[in-house]
Design goal:
By secondary structure, the chain is an all-alpha fold. The protein has one domain. Helix content is about 90%, strand content about 0%. It is rod-shaped, with a radius of gyration of 42 Å. The model has no long low-confidence stretch (mean pLDDT about 90).
C-alpha cells in the first residue's frame, strides 16, 4: 500500500493493515522454521551414518596397525635369526680357513 493510500485510512484501519501484514510475516517465518526443522531431521540420519562409518574406519585402521606391528616384529625376529646364522657360518669358516695375513 502506498503512502498516499494510507493517508485515506483511519487509525483503526491502519492498525488492522499492520496487524494483517504481521500475521502474513509470522506465517512465512513459521513456514521457514518448519522447513528448517524438516531439513534438520532429514540430515540427522546422514550425519549418524557418517559418524558410524568414521568409527568403523578408525577400528579398521587400528586393527591394521596391530597386524602391521605383529608382522614387523616377526620380520625383526627373522632378521636377527638370519644374522645369527651368518655370524655362526663366518666363525666356522674362520676356523677352517684362517684369514689372509697382510
Amino acid at each position: 500500500m502506498s503512502e498516499d493510500e494510507t493517508k485515506l485510512l483511519t487509525t483503526d484501519q491502519k492498525l488492522d493493515f499492520v496487524i494483517g501484514e504481521l500475521r502474513i510475516l509470522n506465517g512465512r517465518v513459521s513456514a521457514i522454521e518448519a522447513a528448517l526443522a524438516d531439513q534438520k531431521l532429514n540430515t540427522r540420519p546422514i550425519w549418524e551414518r557418517a559418524l558410524a562409518e568414521i568409527a568403523a574406519l578408525r577400528q579398521e585402521v587400528q586393527d591394521g596397525f596391530r597386524d602391521f606391528k605383529r608382522e614387523v616384529a616377526t620380520l625383526a625376529k627373522d632378521v636377527i635369526e638370519v644374522r645369527a646364522d651368518i655370524d655362526y657360518a663366518h666363525r666356522r669358516i674362520d676356523k677352517l680357513e684362517p684369514p689372509p695375513q697382510a
